[in-house]
Structures are given as C-alpha cells and as structure tokens.
Amino acid sequence: MALPGEFTLASRGPKKPSRTDGRRPPAPASYPVRTEEDLLTVRHAVRAATVEVGFGLVDQTRVVTAASELARNAYVHGGGGTVTLEYPRDPRGRRGLRLVVKDEGPGIADLDAALTDGFTTGSGLGHGLGGARRLMDEFSVRTGPGEGTEVVVTRWTVR
Fold first, then answer.
1. Residues 70-105: pLDDT tens digits?
2. Separation between Cα atoms, residue 135 and residue 133, nearest integer Å
C-alpha cells in the first residue's frame, strides 16, 4: 500500500522470455527492395524480428526506423536491393538483430558527407544514414563509385 504522495505502477507480471531463449535463432531471411510495397514488407518483417529477439518497444522502434531509412535509401538511391535479417549472439549471451542492406547502385561518392546530418541528395531531411548509425549499436558501410553500397547494422539486447 502506497503512502500519501507515493504511487505504485501495476505490473503485468514477469517479462516473457523471447522466443529465441533456449533454442536456435531463426535462419537469416532476405527481402527484396524493388517497390514501395517492398518497403512496407521490410518494416513488418523487421518489427516481427525485433519481437522474436525480445526487444522492448523503444528498441523495436529504433530498429524498425533504422531499417526503414536504410531500405528506402537502397530503393531510392541504389535502384533497389535486398535487406537480410540475421540473428547473432555474442559471447556474453546477448541476442541481436543484424540488418544487411545491399544495393547495386552507383555507390556513395562522399561517405563522410552522406553521414552528416542535413546532407541529402533528394527531397529528404538528410537524417537517413547518420540517423541509422545513431539508432543501432554497430554500423558499417562498404561503398564506392560504381560498386553499390552495403550497410550492416546490429542492435543488441541488454543483458
């Protein structure tokens, strides 16, 4: 019972373990990014994967937002590509969700500029690549003129 001026929050009970606790993580899955509808499919797949891994709502939103930005970049700037979902585990037992976003477009001519907030080559706000980097725990880009682009990002559960 709370004293005057105190309050308690109701609990819905203990947090349920994720579906991947105690069993093998799901196999990697790839999704094409060729149409606007594919962008929605990627968002839904990533949302489901974040639940599968056991992320809370805030981390689910971070990962889905990053995935959406990266998939849109592959679609708009790379002429389409693929998004692959992987389920790594680190030596400490943390579960993660890794997104590998590839396109075969012209590549990013100036990666440093592209990672700068406000940089845009189109009508966007210029937060895509840099925003995705901030939302995820790990971030890497492999790109070059005429080589296409591969962005690999990972978010880890808290242990």
1. 999 999 999 999 999 999 999 988 999 999 999 999
2. 6
Let me know the angle formed at the C-alpha of 81 by 57 and 53, rounded to the nearest 5 degrees. Answer: 25
What distance separates the 2 farthest-apart alpha carbons in the chain? Answer: 67
- Full domain range(s) for residue 71: 29-156
Residues 6+ apart with CB under 8 A from 115: 129, 130, 133
| Residue-wise pLDDT tens digits, 120-135 | 555 444 457 888 999 9
- The whole-angstrom separation of Cα 109 and Cα 137 is 25
Report yes or no on 99 lying in a domain.
yes
114: in domain: yes
